[in-house]
Design brief:
Blueprint (H helix, E strand, L loop, with lengths): L2 E3 L5 E3 L3 E2 L5 H14 L3 E3 L7 H11 L7 E6 L6 H15 L4 E6 L9 H13 L3 E7 L3 H10 L6 E5 L7 H9 L3 E5 L12 H10 L3 H11 L3 E2 L6 H8 L8 H8 L18
Parallel strand pairs: 3-4, 4-5, 5-6, 6-7, 7-8, 8-9, 9-10
Antiparallel strand pairs: 1-2
Helix pairs in contact: 1-2, 1-9, 2-3, 3-4, 7-8
């Protein structure tokens, strides 16, 4: 495993396991498999409705709590200072944990204009020791800038859609300047076009790896934290086996050239679903 040190000194595995769209009972099995394979970072969210399954898998894993890095997220309908504190307690209870390592605002919802007061509630949770780190998801530069201007704790990371067709270069540069890591959701573009890209396939063949492994390796060398998701045991293991090879500078340049700024998910400036 490779680790990063977040801006508050906390260490986080660079490769984690995501459970988006995984039903609660399946999440329990998938997370158990992932922990057995070697994953130590698990990423869930209130809106995924599988925090209880994730919690059961953690409890049954036999791995000491301090060796696991657990992330969950606040959903849009719970934004607001008091609402956030209540939602966090509910997530913690569902997970069956005393604390989480990372708590994130899921979307900025700029039209609602509540993300600053929401983030201030995350700051309270952080200062109270209920979370070890706080951050955000899907924040554009202007949303991050408001937090930097109006809040005191710099987010440790910004979890955003990122893959070879959407490399987030401008956002990544801003985050790096302020000590904020980029964490990639949909790192494999939900299994769509990028896995069949001829450039990726050519690099994969040269290394004796799959297209997915090459893309995950690119994320790691691009200095992204990455959280692939799968419920298939063989894929869970395949996605973990990315530490035994390196992409060359030429490989990295070729993948860099694939950027299309193609967004597969919603635009955070417009997404306002509750």
């Amino acid at each position: 495993m490779e680790y990063v040190t977040l801006n508050n000194g906390l260490k986080m595995p660079k490769l984690g396991f995501g459970v988006w769209l995984v039903p609660d009972d399946e999440a329990e099995t998938a997370v158990k498999n992932a922990i057995e394979v070697g994953y130590r970072s698990i990423d869930t969210a209130m809106v995924y409705k599988n925090e209880e399954g994730v919690g059961r898998a953690i409890a049954a894993s036999g791995v000491p709590r301090e060796e696991l890095f657990i992330t969950t997220k606040l959903w849009n309908s719970d934004q607001g200072y008091d609402e956030t504190l209540q939602a966090f307690d509910a997530s913690l209870e569902r997970l069956g944990l005393d604390y989480v390592d990372l708590y994130l605002i899921h979307w900025p919802m700029p039209k609602e204009n509540t993300y600053v007061e929401t983030y201030k509630a995350l700051e309270k949770l952080y200062h109270d020791g209920k979370v070890k780190a706080i951050g955000v998801c899907n924040f554009h530069i202007e949303h991050l800038q408001r937090l930097l201007d109006e809040c005191k704790v710099i987010p440790v990371l910004n979890q955003v859609e990122c893959h070879p067709y959407l490399q987030q270069t401008e956002l990544k540069a801003f985050c790096k300047e302020h000590g904020i890591y980029v964490e990639a959701w949909s790192p494999l573009m939900n299994g769509k076009d990028v896995l069949n890209d001829e450039v990726i396939k050519e690099i994969a063949e040269a290394h004796g790896k799959t297209a997915a492994q090459v893309i995950l390796r690119w994320h790691l060398q691009y200095d992204n934290i990455v959280i692939p998701k799968s419920v298939t045991p063989s894929r869970i293991e395949e996605n973990f086996n990315v530490f035994d090879f390196q992409l060359s500078d030429v490989d990295m340049k070729k993948i860099e050239g694939l950027n299309r700024n193609h967004r597969n998910g919603p635009d955070p400036a417009e997404f306002n679903n509750k």
